[in-house]
């Protein structure tokens, strides 16, 4: 009898442990669900440092059953976008883990796959307001249990960005922050602020644009808007339709991957305020004095360091470029070239930095630059990596004319200034270049008295 009671108790404990350890998974649908169409259902999956990889299904109305939801901690909501095939977002678990590694918070993944999975995009758009109303009600319950609206952060991807905006508007812009990762453009472009995300929806709104010519939103929406690679044609993404589905979604999805790098501190991408991408590439927007001692704002998770100055400025439009793969960040130099050729030269420049068995390359080829005698030309060079110590520099000048005369390009001075680190520029004087031939030299620390 005692043995039987012991076994019964042991079985009961085992059942309770299994129940406690049950992990709730993101809704996994397939193309058939999308074709038939899905009606909105929302699951809230909670992750904390105590259950980084095991989601807890949270009640929309009874928070007392979830002691692991500690409302004295900040809470971050992660909201996905349109799911035309019904599959779970491939990035959601990685983002959750990165956020929890960065900070001790509650992460709530908003699973609205029932509603987002629909072959009819317009139906998914219709669900965004309903999803926002559901989340608003939940956040109000959080607030009743002691949560501060200022401690709430919403990360919205595509349609999820607008859902975040609707939630923020419902709460009179009181939530702390919204990060919008390539907010959806179709059905939102040209609409009034109440029908999309805008800067009044939270105390601070930062926006990344990566696909403004197709799936994303073109115009600025936040206190600061980042346009990676001009907001179109992300490096490494397919250029032709023959690449299949990746051709349509790669630019759009790149926004999430860029954000990953900012959360895990793999590297930082400084962004420069500018009126257009062309002006940025031309090197006309390299002054960040308006931001004070902090310098140029950094894209992503840590941009809140610039929050106060950005709120004072009202709206800031910035640009940066990236590599094709992670780490995506590039290192920016201002390159100043003065020639003493009698005739004008037009061409492109490639600069290589060498140091400690590493090499960084920047090709300035977005347009042919004009070089005139004794006239300093300022260029923006974006290197694929940062070298802490530069031992040698290689320069190659190219006219791009394959069949014409090979010109010589006599450089009176070339000066390279690191735009992120406060250090003396590197110079070289009297360098003779031949068309399409690389010349390598040891740079000198510039002396301002020379010119």
From TrEMBL:
Gene Ontology terms: cellular component: extracellular space; plasma membrane
Protein encoded by which gene: lipia
Organism: Cottoperca gobio
Membrane topology field: Peripheral membrane protein
Family of the protein in this entry: Belongs to the AB hydrolase superfamily. Lipase family.
The entry's keywords: Calcium, Cell membrane, Disulfide bond, Glycoprotein, Hydrolase, Lipid degradation, Lipid metabolism, Membrane, Metal-binding, Secreted, Signal
Coiled-coil ranges per UniProt: none
Record's protein name: Lipase member H
UniProt-annotated catalytic positions: 158, 182, 252
Functional description taken from the UniProt entry: Hydrolyzes specifically phosphatidic acid (PA) to produce 2-acyl lysophosphatidic acid (LPA; a potent bioactive lipid mediator) and fatty acid. Does not hydrolyze other phospholipids, like phosphatidylserine (PS), phosphatidylcholine (PC) and phosphatidylethanolamine (PE) or triacylglycerol (TG).
Residue ranges occupied by any Lipase domain in the UniProt entry: 37-328
GO biological-process terms attached to the record: lipid catabolic process; phosphatidic acid biosynthetic process
GO terms assigned for molecular function: carboxylic ester hydrolase activity; heparin binding; metal ion binding; phospholipase activity
Catalytic activity: 1-hexadecanoyl-2-(9Z-octadecenoyl)-sn-glycero-3-phosphate + H2O = 2-(9Z-octadecenoyl)-sn-glycero-3-phosphate + hexadecanoate + H(+)
């Amino acid at each position: 009898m005692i043995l039987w009671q012991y076994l019964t108790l042991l079985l009961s404990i085992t059942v309770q442990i299994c129940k406690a350890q049950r992990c709730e998974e993101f809704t996994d649908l397939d193309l058939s669900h999308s074709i038939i169409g899905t009606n909105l259902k929302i699951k809230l999956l909670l992750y904390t440092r105590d259950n980084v990889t095991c989601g807890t299904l949270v009640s929309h109305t009874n928070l007392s059953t979830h002691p692991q939801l500690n409302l004295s901690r900040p809470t971050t909501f992660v909201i996905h976008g349109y799911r035309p095939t019904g599959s779970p977002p491939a990035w959601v678990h990685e983002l959750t883990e990165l956020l929890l590694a960065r900070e001790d918070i509650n992460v709530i993944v908003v699973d609205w796959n029932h509603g987002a999975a629909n072959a009819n995009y317009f139906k998914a758009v219709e669900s965004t307001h309903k999803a926002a109303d559901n989340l608003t009600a939940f956040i109000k319950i959080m607030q009743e249990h002691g949560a501060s609206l200022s401690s709430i952060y919403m990360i919205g991807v595509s349609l999820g960005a607008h859902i975040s905006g609707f939630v923020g508007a419902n709460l009179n812009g009181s939530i702390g922050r919204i990060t919008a990762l390539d907010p959806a453009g179709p059905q939102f472009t040209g609409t009034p602020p109440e029908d999309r995300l805008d800067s009044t929806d939270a105390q601070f709104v930062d926006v990344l644009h990566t696909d403004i010519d197709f799936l994303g939103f073109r115009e600025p929406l936040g206190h600061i808007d980042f346009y990676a690679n001009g907001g179109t044609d992300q490096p490494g993404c397919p250029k032709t339709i023959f690449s299949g589905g990746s051709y349509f979604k790669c630019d759009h999805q790149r926004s999430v991957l860029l954000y990953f790098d900012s959360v895990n501190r793999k590297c930082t991408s400084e962004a420069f305020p500018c009126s257009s991408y062309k002006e940025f590439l031309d090197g006309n927007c390299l002054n960040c004095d308006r931001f004070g001692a902090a310098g140029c704002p950094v894209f992503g998770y840590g941009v809140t360091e610039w929050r106060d100055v950005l709120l004072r400025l009202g709206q800031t439009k910035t640009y940066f470029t990236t590599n094709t793969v992670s780490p995506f960040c590039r290192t920016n130099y201002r390159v100043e070239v003065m020639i003493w050729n009698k005739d004008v030269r037009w061409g492109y420049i490639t600069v290589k930095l060498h140091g400690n068995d590493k090499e960084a390359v920047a090709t300035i080829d977005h347009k042919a630059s004009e070089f005139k005698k004794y006239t300093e030309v300022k260029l923006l060079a974006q290197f694929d990596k940062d070298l802490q110590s530069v031992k040698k520099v290689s320069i190659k000048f190219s006219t791009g004319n394959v069949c014409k005369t090979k010109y010589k390009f006599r450089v009176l001075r070339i000066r390279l200034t690191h735009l992120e680190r406060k250090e003396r520029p590197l110079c070289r004087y009297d360098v003779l270049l031949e068309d399409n031939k690389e010349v390598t030299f040891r740079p000198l620390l510039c002396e301002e008295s020379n010119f």
